Amino acid sequence: MSIDQNILRRVRARLTAGWRATQYCYRFANTLSFRLLGFALKLVLVLYFLFALIVLGLRYVVLPNIDAYKPAIERLASEALGNPVTLGEIDASWSGLRPRLAFDRLVVHDKAGNAALSLPQVSATLSWWSLVAGELRLHQLEILRPDLDVRRDSAGGLHVAGILLDNGKKGDGRGADWVLSQDEIVIRQGRVRWNDELRGAPELALDNVDFVLRNAWRHHRFALRATPPAGFAAPIDVRADFQHPAFAASISDPTRWTGQLYADVRDTDLTVWRSYVDYPVDMQQGSGSVRAWLDFDHARVANFTADVTLADVRTRLAPDLEPLSLSAVSGRISVQEELNRAVQDGRPTFGQNGHAIALTNFSLRTEDGLFLPQTTISERFVAARNGKPARTELQAKLLDLQTLASFAGRLPLPAEQRRMLADFAPRGVLREFSAQWQGSYPQLIGYSVKGQFEGLSMQPRAAIPAVPKSAAGPAQAAVPAIPGFENLTGRVDATERGGSLSLASVNTSLQMPAWFERGEMPFERLQLQANWAFQDKNQLLLDLQRLEFIQDGLTGTLVGKYQLPLSRQPGQSPGTVDVTGRIEHVALREVGRYLPVQTPEHLRQWLSGALAGGSARDLKLRLKGDLAHFPFLARNPSERARGEFSVSARIEDGVLNYAPGQFAADGTSPRWPLIDRIDGSIVFDRARMEIHADSARSAGATLSRVKAVIPELHAQNLMLEVDGDAAGPLQNLLRFTLDSPVAGWIGNFTDETRASGDARLALSLKLPLHRLEDAKVNGVLHFANNTVTLRSLLPPLAGVGGRLEFNEKGFGLQGVRASFLGGPTAVSGGTQRDGSIVVKAEGSLTADGIRKALSTPKTERSLQRISGGTRYVTTIRVRNKQPEITVESSMAGIALDFPAPLRKAAGESMPLRFDMTGLPSSDPAALRDEIRIALGSAISARYERRRDLAREADWKVVRGGIGVNVPAPQPDSGVIANVSMARLDIDAWRRVVASMAGTPQPADGSTRQTDSYGIGQYIEPEVLAARANELIIMDRKLDNVVVGASHQSDVWQANIDSEQASGYITWVESGYSGGLGRVTARLASLIIPKSAAGEVTELLDSQDSATQMPAIDIVAENFELFGKKFGQLELAARNARGPSGREWRINRLAISNPDGEFKASGRWYRKEGENISSLNYTLDIADAGRLLDRFGFANLLRGGKGKMTGEVSWKGMPFSLDIPTLGGNLQLDLAAGQFLKADANAAKLLGVLSLQSLPRRLVLDFRDVFSEGFAFDGVAATATISQGVAKTDNFKMRGVAATVLIDGSADIAQETQNLHVVVIPDFNVGAASVVYGLAVNPVIGVGTFLAQLFLREPLMRAFTFEYQVTGPWKDPVVNKLARRNQVPAPADGQPSAEPRG
């Protein structure tokens, strides 16, 4: 209790002491404040009264007497401005409580005393702050119409009205300080002249200058409007708002100012201002309008904003940049600089501490076509300081990256931004885009990117792993690998921690060399939703929410996750994946494009080439696990748990190439036949690949139950196992052998084999893909009544049964039976132990079998000459890939009906041996062999052949020879026949050879056909050497003949020496079925004996000869016909198309000798089934007597020279006149001849020669008319021939003793005549001249001749004799006629006269 009371007392005492102290303090403060307040009140009252006294003194004492203070005012103004000032009149007034002074003609002088500024009118309102400042201060200074001189001296000093604003010297610049200390300065309607001695620029005068300056201690503002000279700009507007430190030593020092400057220049030419203003860039040209705001801080530009509308701008933004030429530019440009507030030394920093650049509603167009559409872009850079890294921010509403990249070389961008543009090479458009990063590219500490993009393209960039913080530098953020891409559209939101990406692109492509071997992956459509996040240990987790794409017809989707290292170290896993995908359709040949780069190279190459065609549908993909264990072998349960990989799809029309990249000998075909038209499935299960074909084809054969398996895809040595069955045409199954290495394994035995009919093949292949030469094969070919041709020139085997077994070591024939050339045969053999091949066939053949196997429209006639049957043995050997074929037969039982020497009866034996042996070839692209044939003891043949390895190439005879009774020759090239026989019928053999070799047959008029067996090249020699006692050629018999002939390209050339002909002959065979070609002969002699007359007739006596006669060009120097020497013969004729079809035209027929020359032309054609010949001829007679001697009519006539012409036609051959149908006309004119003594039938008036029947003739006998040796001066006559009857009415023969006239007819066919003969003796000269004048006129007939003669010479009638000659030519009847009583009236109207006597 006592303790509590003590405590209470202590508290009470302390409270009492505190209260007393408080009371004391209050009383002290109250006393002090009362005194201070009283003092202040007294001071205010004193100042008030003092101010009142001053105002009263000014108002009533000073201002009324202001002129008295003019010197003091000038002194004060001079001290304030620092320059002498003189005043004119002064007017004083009040402006409120402030005194106001108005000055006229105020002049400010420079240091030299010159008037620097003349002000017509100045108004100044004084400020009461003058009392406080101790110097003149004005509330307002107003100047009207000043003329101001502003000058910058050569040292850089600025003088305004002679006042140096600031030159750095102590005490100077007070005028500028004083100006900035006044409340307001106003200039109206002034004029300013600017002279720049430092730049040496011409004077610049500004008119209509309005200027306002307002100062409020630290804060200053001014506005200036002025009109520059014409051509510079429109009126300019310049404003400023700035402040300076509170207690600056000089307020006019610009390095201490902070504020903003505004300028508005319209319609200006930027070029003219270069003399007065230093542009921040090299401005070479430009015009337009500029409105700019400039924020400055201690002479440093802190912010610059300009609204520009310019055109035709030429500038260079930095000395090391490319020139920039702009046809138009508009928008707002803002540049802001981060300033270090701690440093205010006035030195510019040019953005070293940070900056911001913004383009608002900005667009431009360059002269080279680049266009930046209107956009808003901002960029901000904060420099590194206080341990914080540099930071860069970029924002854009719309940005064309390609345009920006194109401008990069012309813009003053930082080096790291230039490098970024060069590395990424961006193109496309960004919208609502923002990007921010910390650090310097490419070492970034943090970053963020967000925005939309359209048509975006960029080069690929490798991943950058995170770098932890260290003493050497700050931490760096991880950056994922960025694939290159083209034309992407979508949205991105990414930071150093992760991000998201959304794509909706069409016609785009990705460049992903880190993922796929083919770097570029084009897509018709690509849609993507994906997120990613950076995890510990430099891991990136990619969450593929959905990926949909269409690429080259391939449509697919993919979802899943993929965790991968940002920087993969050797031995490190490529990542962990859990992906499921589905593809609707993919072309199998494109599978290689989609294999990841982790696929083993040998597997990639095989899959890319092996899947050579077709498509896979409904493809399903499942991939899960650590890719370090791909393809996730499952040899045990623990390995199976590592992961999962499977791909399955349906195959449609697929193509499988066992050995891609490996080719057959031709260098283009695959080494193994392709399996195509595959319909089935393909499955990749971990490391195993299986292809199951429900149906397929290979080499044209249908396949079934085909299974292709690669058990271990990861193995370095891939093994492909193929099993299946094939069914189809046997030729297609043989093609598999030909088109695969099997052909080499069986010694190319089936290279020339041809087959028909269906067969079955069971095949099993094991192909080590790295060493296909070690391939294993097992196959069985089952024959089913097939037809097989083993080798060319060998007839086919029909009804083949049995089987052919083969493997990589060879083949064997098991139970093969067949029918060969009409008889049964057994075939056995195969590959022997030494690697050679022996196949033996033994059986019999028949002529019918030969005809059925070998008969064609070309060989049918020849094969009809064979009959009977015989046995044979055939052996085929292949050793060292060289085939040997031997055929042996006695030929007993076979009859041959060919011309000698190939003629035999069935019972005769003519041993046949046929050997075909392979020869080594120096050309690896060709095969060679030799054929030897021996038939009996007389005939032998030997051929060397060549066959190019090109597909379907046939054997060609390189050289060969046929010998008959002599050894077979061996020429360097071509085929030669050497024949020595007693009788050789070339025509018979030519007809046989033509039928075998395909020579056209005229019987059916068919066109030339191909020699399917190539027999012609064996039996149709190019050179023929023949010696024969008797040679039949072109239906001519030649005796004791030696002939050498060559044959090339349907042309026969021969030198012949025989009793009938000697010279050079060429025969060009017809190129069509309608003729026999062309015969050209140049002969020294041509003799046709009488014994050949029937042969000539038989040769030409054919209904179709007009179209079958060859064209002829014959020149014979010595032509004899039936023992008559005709002289030189020229005959040219050809087949041609005429009005009635084809005809044989005789272009030239000429027979010449010293006694005369016969020339003719004509034609031979068929009409209505009959041959018709016509001839136009001219016979020039040099000696008619000797000419008749040549024709066999000796001693009939001596001399005689003239011409006989005419035109005749007949039904029949051109060289066989048909007298009953002969028609035409002739003209005869002969002179100076004499008839000789002849027998009773020798005197001739007319002789007609026929080349077919030359002995025929027509004879007239005049022995009872005139005596032997009758000489004539001329013979003139014309005659017509119709149906073999010649008629004339004007035959006139003039002689020395008489004139003979003949008219009448002669039947040439019947050799009879009916002629009227008139003989007029020559008894005086006058009568003879009349007779001669009438006789030489060939037009006048006998009757008219006599009428005119008797009218002129009546006495001639009495001495004229007339005869009638009738009867046969051999025994004519001549009757003398009595004189006529009357003479026919003359045709010309002269009076008639009675005949005398």
From TrEMBL:
Lineage per the UniProt record? Bacteria, Pseudomonadati, Pseudomonadota, Betaproteobacteria, Burkholderiales
Please name the source species: Noviherbaspirillum aridicola
YhdP central domain: residues covered: 34-1374
Which top-level group of life is the source organism from? Answer: Bacteria
> Mind telling me which residue stretches traverse the membrane in this protein?
36-62
Query: What InterPro entries is this protein classified in?
Result: YhdP, YhdP_central
Please state what the protein is called. DUF3971 domain-containing protein
List the keywords (alphabetical): Membrane, Transmembrane, Transmembrane helix
